[in-house]
Each structure stands twice: as structure tokens, then as C-alpha cells.
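Morning, I've got a small favour to ask if you have a moment. I owe you a coffee for this, so here goes:

…
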Amino acid sequence: MTMNKFNAQELCSRKLWELVKNEPGQRQEINEAELSEAIRELAERRHDLEELAETGILGRTN
């Protein structure tokens, strides 16, 4: 059995958005730590900063 380690840097922005925009009850692909990592990665990609701030997702990383 192989274990895949979540690495947000390896994912495209579109996939990261799919992961962070899922409703909490539907979020089965990643856990809370991975969700925080995905949000941080999107925040580092400057072109996503404005949308993260507008949606309120950026504040979830703390």
C-alpha cells in the first residue's frame, strides 16, 4: 500500500480552489491541516490573493 503525501505546491490553482471551496460536509478529499496548506499555497500565488480575501477564505489559515 502506498501513501500519498498531500503537497499543495504540486497542485494547480484550479484544483486547490476545488479543494478549498467545497462545503465542510462535502470535504472528504483533505483534512483540516491539508486545507490550511492549500489556502496558504493559494495565498502565496499572488494572483489569487484578492479572491481569497473577498471570499473570506484567507482568514481560515490562522
Notes: The helical segments are 13-21, 32-44, 49-55. DSSP finds three helices and no strands in the chain. The chain has a mean pLDDT of 77. The CA atoms of residues 17 and 35 lie 10 Å apart.
